[in-house]
Design brief:
2 copies of one chain form a homodimer. Chain A is mostly helical. The first copy, chain A, contains 6 helices and 3 strands; from the N terminus they run αβααββααα. The radius of gyration of chain A is 18 Å and the shape is elongated. The structure holds a DNA duplex.
Amino acid sequence: MQITIDTEDHIPLFAQLVSQVKKAVLDGKLSSGDALPSIRQLANDLDLNNKTVAKAYSLLERDEVVQTKGYRGTYIHPEAKVNSAIDLNEWALAKLSDVTRALREAGVTDSEIRIAFTKTMTNHTHREN
Amino acid sequence: MQITIDTEDHIPLFAQLVSQVKKAVLDGKLSSGDALPSIRQLANDLDLNNKTVAKAYSLLERDEVVQTKGYRGTYIHPEAKVNSAIDLNEWALAKLSDVTRALREAGVTDSEIRIAFTKTMTNHTHREN
DNA sequence: ATATGTACCCCTAGATCAAAGGGTACATAT
DNA sequence: ATATGTACCCTTTGATCTAGGGGTACATAT
């Protein structure tokens, strides 16, 4: 498969990787069971840092577009085609948009909304990347 | 009425003002129709900036704890006692907490939640303080 | 030995924001 | 003239976040 990264682009590198893999799946250029290059391999080829590629891969795994088989490498997920069409982030955006609109209509200040938001994010026993 | 401000406290000055006025209303020390000191007057007494006091007053007005009558000054709102018990910010906190919990359970990253949040806040044609 | 994904630690460079203050100006009414 | 709330302008301080990188280590299996 072909992956091109534009370092000049304003879109984060890991995000470019993620969407390119998803696009390749939707276009049929990658299908269930296909092997992806290893993290270190791809990082080397594209002249990216390991962690940038690792981040993209872990996001793809969470979206079930990719399956990691430990030391055996990373492969396209059986349900990849379906899952590539689902955009978790857009759903999150919609959900948050609903709430903030309701809060604003109730007279809550933007500033207050932000403060309440960061409070929920810091209190809520955080881990994650 | 008595208002004491603790500059050393981690709680914002305007927030201290707001909660002290609400508390005074709940305790019956201030009741409907009572006049509050003017913004400039109170700022001078407490050695605060005008804008800090003005911010507190405008929040109190939004919460309908206080009523501003233009050049005639600021007075306690008829419904002040009821409205002093309502905490808009806690409600906002609860609402946001619900959504972020749902998003997290769906596998959305904290980072992604934050990004989606700021997107809703910036896109949504903002004004406000 | 070597390669796999993964999990930590630290760091930098930007951006954005809250809180508070400083200043100036305005219409309104006394 | 004076006082009222209000609406702008701009600034500083400190905090927090993203994206990205650097490094090191680990268990697993070939």
